[in-house]
Amino acid sequence: MKKRTIALWGSALAICVFTGGLGWNQTTTVAETADVLAYLKERNILTGYENGDFGLEQTITRAEFTTVLMRAVPSKPSNDTVKLKFSDLPQEHWAYADIMAATDLQIVNGFENATFAPEESVLYEDAVKMVLCAFENSYAEYPVGFLTAAMEGGYLDDVSGKIGQPITRDGASHLIYNALILSKQKLEDEKRLASYEDMWMSSSGGGNGGGVGAAWSTAPMAPTGTVSMESVIPEAAEPDIFTANYDAPYHNTEEYTAKEENIFKDCMKNPLSTFSIDVDTASYSNMRRFLMQGQIPPKGSVRTEELLNYFDYDLPQPEGNIPFSVTTEVAECPWNPKHQLAMIGIQGNDLSESERQPSNIVFLIDTSGSMYDSDKLPLVQKSMALLLDQLDERDTISMVAYAGSAGVILEPTSASEKEEILTALYSLRAGGSTAGADGIELAYQLAEQNKTGGNNRIILCTDGDFNVGVSSTGDLESLIQKKKESGIYLSVLGFGMDNYKDNRMETLADCGNGNYAYIDNLKEAKKVLMDDMVGTLYTIAKDVKLQVEFNPSAVAQYRLIGYENRVLQTEDFDNDAKDAGELGAGHAVIALYEIVPATGEASENGLRYQHSVSKQDGSELMYVKLRYKRPDSDSSELLEYAVANQTVVQMSNNLCFASAIAELGMLLNESDYKGDIDFDSVMKLAERGRGTDTSGLRGEFIQLTDLAKYIFKTKN
């Protein structure tokens, strides 16, 4: 019999580990070969060949990888319970015991013909699946779900070109070592989170305040003492092993409102394009959620403008008293070289800590039965705790919860009283129907009672499933529009899946002079409520509108990319009573136009480009006008910019990356204007515009595009 040779595998390995905080700062460290091997050998996971060679570039068999992995698993069951037998795996096979134990734990399985193929090389995606089955307690659709879960969790950084290929011993060691390091770090981070929650929830101080409604006067409080985090923290010695149920029924009642894609407009007949800005980001994180689950995002869920505005751009800070800067750029259109691509970039002014005004914030939290899942109310609680950590004695927090009825959970309380606020927050439990309208009304009453000259805002946390009281989108819109005039803004944070009502939440945020984000994990909560906290909470300009006049001497046709939900009538631009979008501190807004160059003469229609100074002069491509109101004003101010008809030789990183986003949006929406672009061209363009990418978000975009390519390939 062949001598047992399963030890690994020496060379320097790139190891992804989590450092600091709660595990959201992912860094890459190059480990010395000796350190890696020592770590694994010390734990009896590796032995090595007798000659000291580790054969890094060799592939590893299914039997070898299973054995090494089982050595890394903290405990394993008796294989007496194993019923599955493999015709090509005799009991005397050197790896029999480990393979049977892994089968019993549902880490591995065989083929449909009842074979295991122990001597065949293990495929990359199969190795990833086995590791995640051993170290994680959740999964998505195989193989896409396992691969993306591994990238999201830090087990690996890129799967490009690896799917369907045998994994090398180098790659296998990387994977298993990362699993062990990440498991250790995750346990430490989550225990620290548990200790925080223990501190918050063990307080005996009252969190309900004096004005608690009848439905909430007996609301269950969090238990004192040690908090059980079994749902969050796996036991170190016995990791939870899950069973993949591929046949489980799936009921999806999510709601999205699909809009017809903007078409090309004839510049002679329609020289003006008018729209409202949009700083919502929900569509991007929601799109990511679908792709991570191995699904094509449903129609209406991908709004290109929200994909564009999810990212930061290298745009100049404003000068003088204007709250934002305006940057324009014109280049050859990447997906149609015969056309031009024009970018308008708006960059909001950053606020320093000293410039930040006091906040009066009401947490309006949906506690209905539909919020029971771990990605709903429990994630809401953790997310609001993150926001609370960014606030101080200048700020005031109130809390309203709503289910079958609505009630005050916390009267206005200084944000410095974190223990009291967190006790109230963690007392919430999900159950009952959804009296959303009552909750919104009560939240506005509470906000009005404590109104400050600074930032007054309600933060609604919900899955959008309103089913008691006012529930239609039209009625909710009317309700919010009546309330916003007092200077109290409404921001909406969406949570959960399956019954998610995107259309309603977008409506609420738009009507309430606030922004809309979708939070699918704690990392996204950190981005929205910590990294982008100032922009999320502090408005620097409201009712921001753009109107672009195209020069018919230079432009034959144009098409606004995205913003279908934000298109305005021409006359709306000068109408200060017409609502438009709000710009938060530090936020960037990107608008793209695809332009068909003109070949004919301009027509007489009385606009700028028909006057004698500019008639039939093609030196200007377009004329950009912006109207905005300062947060405390009801009158708008006007800014105007002429854009030269000059195409840059090389696109900036800003335009390059924005173009890639536009391409992905067209592919996901199956646009009529996508031409010959594909996912590879998106990734190539995004890589060109990636820049320094200190946040890692542009790299994530590239990975998601690669994932989308795989999903479309397998499902179409």
What keywords describe this structure?
globular, six-stranded mixed beta sheet, 18 helices, 716 residues, Immunoglobulin-like, 18 strands, 3 domains, alpha+beta, 30% helix
Q: Please, could you describe this protein's structure?
A:
This protein is of the alpha+beta class and 716 residues long. It folds into 3 domains: 173 residues, no CATH class; 263 residues, Immunoglobulin-like (Sandwich), CATH 2.60.40; 170 residues, von Willebrand factor, type A domain (Rossmann fold, 3-Layer(aba) Sandwich), CATH 3.40.50.410. Helix content is 30%, strand content 18%. It has 18 helices and 18 strands. The radius of gyration is 28 Å and the shape is globular. The N terminus is likely disordered.
Q: Which helices and strands occur, and which strands form pairs?
A:
Layout: E1 13-19, E2 25-31, H1 33-42, H2 62-72, H3 96-104, H4 124-135, H5 144-153, H6 169-201, E3 265-266, E4 272-276, H7 282-292, H8 304-308, E5 324-332, E6 340-348, E7 359-366, H9 377-388, E8 396-402, E9 406-414, H10 418-425, H11 436-449, E10 455-462, H12 473-483, E11 489-494, H13 502-511, E12 516-518, H14 522-531, H15 533-537, E13 539-550, E14 555-560, E15 581-584, E16 588-597, E17 620-629, E18 637-644, H16 653-668, H17 679-688, H18 697-715
Parallel strand pairs: 7-8, 7-10, 10-11, 11-12
Antiparallel strand pairs: 1-2, 3-14, 4-13, 5-6, 6-16, 8-9, 13-15, 13-17, 14-16, 17-18
Helix pairs in contact: 2-3, 4-5, 4-6, 6-10, 9-14, 11-12, 12-13, 16-17, 17-18
